[in-house]
């Protein structure tokens, strides 16, 4: 087992899907919303610069002979972490989050811990395959209110893939912190491997309702208070 910090970390870097939020929320709410709205959105906005750039990149990455909208739908069904798809999803979800039709799911243990950690002076950041715009929508319109002000940084795959050690080294550099001061939380073994390889402390969230596959190579916790206990972090004050 690797990744347990000797001193408590000064920064927390968290994944979203499977870590702060249910995989079912992403697969059963977010993806179907984007799927339903895709054609209308592309018909209305397909010529706008950002959307057109995503469509060109998606066409380049599509399988030979595959139509671009067909490729986008296939990637959604596969939960493929493809940059132009993730950018388009974020743009499509914006209307849903802003109207209140979608609320960002967070497991109930997450917001109290994030607030306690931020209050104690820990630096909080997000690293997700979801675009930075989508991350801010989810935390800004979450079931626990607007949590965006708790975070100092948001990273998506523009910094590199989540299974590549270089991405975590770049994030540590961007945060001006030694990698070992950063604790990365994720449900995915390959992401934890990459972060640990870059020198970060890591912990796997093994959330029973997400059916996470436990990875014996890294410390494991069923929720954020258990992460706090493992790594000497503050725990939320109990309501009186
Ligand atoms: C607001 S991010 C939505 C979730 C998403 O699209 C995604 O791909 C999450 O992947 P993660 O890297 O957080 O597991
Ligand atoms: Mg995840």
Automatic annotation (TrEMBL):
Q: Could you tell me which SUPFAM superfamilies the record lists for this protein?
A: HAD-like
Q: What does the record give as EC number? A: 3.1.3.77
Protein's GO biological process: L-methionine salvage from methylthioadenosine
Gene3D superfamilies listed in its UniProt record:
1.10.720.60, HAD superfamily/HAD-like
Keywords for this entry?
Amino-acid biosynthesis, Hydrolase, Magnesium, Metal-binding, Methionine biosynthesis
Q: Please list the GO terms describing molecular function.
A: 2,3-diketo-5-methylthiopentyl-1-phosphate enolase activity; 2-hydroxy-3-keto-5-methylthiopentenyl-1-phosphate phosphatase activity; acireductone synthase activity; magnesium ion binding
UniProt cross-references to Pfam families, sorted A to Z: Hydrolase
Q: Which reaction does it catalyse?
A: 5-methylsulfanyl-2,3-dioxopentyl phosphate + H2O = 1,2-dihydroxy-5-(methylsulfanyl)pent-1-en-3-one + phosphate
Q: State the InterPro entries in the record.
A: Enolase-ppase_E1 (IPR023943), HAD-like_sf (IPR036412), HAD-SF_hydro_IA (IPR006439), HAD_sf (IPR023214)
Enumerate the cofactors the protein uses.
Mg(2+)
Which family is annotated? Belongs to the HAD-like hydrolase superfamily. MasA/MtnC family.
Function summary: Bifunctional enzyme that catalyzes the enolization of 2,3-diketo-5-methylthiopentyl-1-phosphate (DK-MTP-1-P) into the intermediate 2-hydroxy-3-keto-5-methylthiopentenyl-1-phosphate (HK-MTPenyl-1-P), which is then dephosphorylated to form the acireductone 1,2-dihydroxy-3-keto-5-methylthiopentene (DHK-MTPene).
Name listed for the protein in its UniProt record = Enolase-phosphatase E1
Q: Which organism is it from?
A: Pseudoroseomonas cervicalis ATCC 49957
